[in-house]
Amino acid sequence: MDGVLVHEEEALPGASELIETWKALGRRFLVLTNNSLFTPRDLSARLVRSGLNVPEENIWTSAMATAAFLENQSGEKTAFVVGEVGLTTAMHDAGFILTETDPSYVVIGETRNYSFEAITKAIRLIDAGARFILTNPDPTGPSPDGPLPGAGSLAAMITTATNRQPYVIGKPNPVMFRYALNRIGAHSETTGMIGDRMDTDIVAGMEAGLHTVLVLTGSTLREDIETFPYRPSRVLDGVKDLVPLIKPEEKPEEAPVSQAKKVISALKTD
Asked: What is the pTM of this model?
């Protein structure tokens, strides 16, 4: 989302045309974000205000990926959650009971209401045996006034206190992409990933087996690419450069008639 389709709530050049072209051609797509604060409905409304008409069913967040992952794990569906409505809604939708009493998981996401009491509770529950889950590793998040502490920063404090590392669901873990593929019934061999970060988007897309496209409208500069040991499949100045490359799917040609059938057909005609 940020750095690919929008920048500071403004749609980037070509973003609206790209979305509308996909919809017109019936292409399956998801807009991914590591942001776990908001529900898909909230994010869809924010995109509409930016001039992008993205339905909520086309949005996939790290909170949703976390809930999908935990839903497939064995054991009781109980969790202590530190996060906002985007995460708590996703966990409820996955059938979880949110509790402070002997939960199976402690799930940490982004929050704008840091609570010393909640962090202390999380530390004690992890020490008591709850499994430590993190929606995304981002140390900071963007805001008009500058960076804000992200879920990764909160998790680092808990890790220091417990000596336990969380299992991270969001990018750069390719599991987020694999659940996204499942959601739209796609296969990695025929799916592309467009992102603006080499260290999260591109590496996760590559490890998930996707065609990766890096756009230079966000965090990564062209000269930064050389500092990484891997490369995207393609580098573009922005999503505006993708629109002319999209073509309607061609119908497969009919299988050629074998030479033997041609001979028999000719004999029958004669």
From this structure: 0.87
